[in-house]
């Protein structure tokens, strides 16, 4: 009985440790089983429906609407926004995987609201898995620090991304705001 308990604890620990990878592979396998075709065919390596998928918390929608105006309206970038572009009736997790697959980049709007949302964290982890396993470590993920978060409240998985990648901080002043949108546009291409 001690051996069974040990095996149970070990298995539980491994499943917990690799939960994001397991979820990613589960949904990718499920998508392929239901007729999913890879967005990146051998003939066309840049056949994406969207330039970027925007991962954000619902409470940050006002900022995302400003982003839509600045990037789609002014700069002609195609954004995938979940409240607008997800297919109604589909599983949320499948919508997320499909959106990330069909987008060249994933922009994470990092805020205290983002960290508190399980779906936002799921989107971040799926984008990381897409970057590692499907796109051969191609730079897919981009962070926008929208609101300041105390360092002690930032999960380690996000700290890893912050330390590994460049990111933009949303400024408070008008001049910085103009530069911010230009830099974000530049980061997408």
Automatic annotation (TrEMBL):
First-listed, main subcellular location of the protein, grouped into a coarse class: membrane
GO CC term, one of those recorded: plasma membrane
GO molecular function: signaling receptor activity
Compartments where located: Membrane
Keywords in alphabetical order: Glycoprotein, Immunity, Innate immunity, Leucine-rich repeat, Membrane, Receptor, Repeat, Signal, Transmembrane, Transmembrane helix
Record domain TIR: where: 48-188
Membrane topology annotation: Single-pass type I membrane protein
Top-level division of the source organism's lineage: Eukaryota
Pfam (any one): TIR
GO annotation, biological process: innate immune response; signal transduction
InterPro entries on file: TIR_dom (IPR000157), Toll_tir_struct_dom_sf (IPR035897)
PANTHER family referenced in this protein's UniProt entry, alphabetically: PROTEIN TOLL-RELATED (PTHR24365:SF541), TOLL-LIKE RECEPTOR (PTHR24365)
Family per similarity comment: Belongs to the Toll-like receptor family.
Protein name, as recorded: TIR domain-containing protein
Top-level taxonomy: Eukaryota, Metazoa, Spiralia, Lophotrochozoa, Mollusca
